[in-house]
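pinging the channel bc i need a second pair of eyes. not urgent but kinda urgent?? the chain im working w is below, pasted from the shared doc
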Amino acid sequence: MRQTTSSVATIDRLINRLVASERPILFGHERPDGDAVGAALGLMWLLRGLGKRVTVSFADPLSANLSFLPGAETVADLPVADHDLIVALDGSDERRYGANFSAALNDPSRPPLIAIDHHKTNTGFADESWVDSRFAATAQMVYALALQAAWPVDQRAATCLATGCVTDTNAFTTDHTTPELLDAVASLMRRGAPLADIIREGIALKSEADAMLWGRVLATATIEDGVAYALSRLVDRNAVNASEGDGSGIVSFLRNVRGVALSILFVEQEDGQTRLSFRSNPDTDVAALALEWGGGGHAQAAGATVALPLDEAVAQIVPAAKRLVSASHTDSGA
């Protein structure tokens, strides 16, 4: 396996693999967010423009706020079957792509596997990987690849790729929003991406269930020693008919409370496990905390799933978060 940061040669190798394929299948990670979906659908439209027969596979359904994307209706949970190239997008760990991907990964007769990802915790599971955490979004990487390949980028591809860039920076409000990201989005707008619609549909709009869940989850919030955390409990989600993905924006909301260095959303799952979502300020690296619990992500945005019930997860992880905040403040001289 080969894991690299950006170089012309690396991107050219991936371009050559994509061009040589006829039936690529594109996988995005479980619980798909705007970047995973935007990168996958954007690459789908780019490759269809080259005459490729492209399939997009996600293990979980897309959320309602991404249904506006061109091609969203084509996404399904699909096996590799007779495809001739596997492309993994925006997932740092092979376990995050679902059962169909895992089955292919363990099949010695599978087609080649390439990965495009901007998470520094990528495990290098692909035959060849382009991994570069300097990019704010995997969709931004796909656009850079398209520009290097001189592929045509139509409005459908531009809309999907811009959505990945916008949602993964929370509408340009995160610390990894770079001038290069803004340049890419401006270029995609010139190709027809409707920025205002993307922000409204992809970020601002909430379902009634999501809005009602916010009140219940925020009622559980605790803030102490620079750490803010809240609980998304099954009983609360069931009471308002909310999905597991509803309330996801709460972790960023809590991170923005004055005096908070690190926030955590604990999401109780049906199988007795607990999903963790971490956010932090620039001087606190939550990717390390996520890795400690079997997850991964970015320095200021990461996640994991632990085989612990909700109460035990809180009891074990909150003290670890407090230790990280204390150590980070000591190192920074705060």
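so The chain has two domains: 2-203, 208-332. and The chain is about 40% helix and 15% strand. — does that match what u expected or am i reading it wrong
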